[in-house]
């Protein structure tokens, strides 16, 4: 899966002030990502506020994104949940035209055992026509996909091709890298650890801050892939503060405000239970944008 090397971005879903999807801004965001050198795009991951979209809205976003991208870069669709049967149904009904892979988050809230996580992904792998990327984000799901479970899936299902790791555990990253099949990819799920993860062999990042700074994120991963960690470290350090501001009041509220401030999208509206960032955070974001200009 060479298409999953380098910099991917988990696209936000822009909304109008009345809460409807702002397809004009979504189109502008897609063009911005492609023009600035992002390697691939992820439609409707966590950053896309997927949990607040209806089934009809998800289809509209996926169809619009595929049509707008028109094969210029690879596309990944985020399809996950904590009801395995429903996730399988969504995957079976998904129109794969224009898409290269599916990113599927580990089941949240239920807190399944490792065997439950394995069986969940087994059902997904057997249902999917596209390659599958595991997504481990314990801070959101309430459970961890153990390296042994990720490796079991990687070894038993050839269409499970990568894991997006956001556990924060370098012991876990290292175990996966040591024991994984040669073709299986480790992908960073946290912007601040992309450089050190790539230093141990990760393929790149599925980024949040890349929405607002795609060129920097793409350059960072390219430098790391070339082994030029000195220059990569400069970009890494530049992005630390602005990345922190993405999450200080919740994702994607922070990065949506950045995109609005930079004129990429028209509104920073987020759907409840998320709310827009405070004036204090807005001012901090404005200051950091000015420093990075």
From TrEMBL:
Site residues by UniProt (Part of a proton relay during catalysis): 46, 109
Coiled coil: none
Top-rank taxon, per record: Bacteria
Iron-sulfur among keywords: no
Cellular-component GO terms for this entry: cytosol
One GO-annotated biological process of the protein: diaminopimelate biosynthetic process
Tagged with keyword Transcription regulation: no
Active site per the UniProt annotation: 135 (proton donor/acceptor), 164 (schiff-base intermediate with substrate)
Pfam families from the UniProt entry: DHDPS
Primary enzyme class: lyase
Catalytic activity: L-aspartate 4-semialdehyde + pyruvate = (2S,4S)-4-hydroxy-2,3,4,5-tetrahydrodipicolinate + H2O + H(+)
Residues involved in pyruvate binding: 47, 206
Pathway membership, UniProt: Amino-acid biosynthesis; L-lysine biosynthesis via DAP pathway; (S)-tetrahydrodipicolinate from L-aspartate: step 3/4
SMART domains cross-referenced by the UniProt entry: DHDPS (SM01130)
Enzyme Commission number: 4.3.3.7
Keywords: Amino-acid biosynthesis, Cytoplasm, Diaminopimelate biosynthesis, Lyase, Lysine biosynthesis, Schiff base
Gene3D superfamilies tied to this protein: Aldolase class I
GO MF annotation list: 4-hydroxy-tetrahydrodipicolinate synthase activity
Protein's cellular compartments: Cytoplasm
Residues carrying the site annotation L-lysine inhibitor binding: 51, 82, 86, 108
Family listed: Belongs to the DapA family.
Function of the protein: Catalyzes the condensation of (S)-aspartate-beta-semialdehyde [(S)-ASA] and pyruvate to 4-hydroxy-tetrahydrodipicolinate (HTPA).
Quaternary data: Homotetramer; dimer of dimers.
Protein name: 4-hydroxy-tetrahydrodipicolinate synthase
Species this protein is from: Sphingobacterium allocomposti
């Amino acid at each position: 899966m060479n298409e999953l090397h380098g910099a991917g971005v988990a696209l936000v879903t822009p909304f109008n002030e009345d809460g409807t999807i702002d397809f004009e801004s979504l189109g502008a965001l897609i063009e911005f990502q492609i023009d600035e050198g992002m390697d691939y795009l992820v439609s409707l991951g966590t950053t896309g506020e997927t949990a607040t979209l209806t089934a009809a809205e998800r289809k509209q976003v996926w169809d619009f994104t595929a049509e707008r991208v028109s094969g210029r870069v690879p596309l990944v669709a985020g399809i996950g949940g904590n009801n395995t049967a429903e996730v399988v149904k969504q995957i079976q009904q998904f129109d794969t035209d224009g898409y290269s892979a599916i990113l599927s988050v580990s089941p949240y809230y239920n807190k399944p055992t490792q065997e439950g996580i394995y069986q969940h992904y087994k059902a997904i792998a057997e249902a999917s026509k596209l390659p599958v990327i595991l997504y481990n984000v314990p801070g959101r799901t309430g459970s961890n996909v153990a390296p042994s479970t990720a490796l079991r899936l990687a070894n038993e299902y050839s269409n499970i091709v990568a894991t997006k790791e956001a556990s924060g555990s370098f012991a876990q990253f290292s175990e996966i890298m040591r024991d994984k099949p040669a073709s299986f990819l480790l992908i960073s799920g946290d912007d601040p650890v992309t450089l050190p993860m790539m230093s141990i062999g990760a393929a790149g990042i599925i980024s949040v801050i890349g929405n607002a700074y795609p060129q920097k994120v793409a350059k960072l991963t390219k430098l790391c892939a070339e082994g030029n960690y000195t220059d990569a470290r400069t970009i890494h350090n530049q992005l630390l503060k602005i990345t922190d501001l993405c999450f200080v009041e919740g994702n994607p509220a922070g990065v949506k405000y950045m995109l609005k401030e930079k004129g990429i999208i028209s509104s920073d509206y987020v759907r409840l239970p998320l709310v827009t960032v405070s004036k204090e955070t807005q001012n901090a974001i404005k200051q950091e944008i000015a420093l990075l200009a």
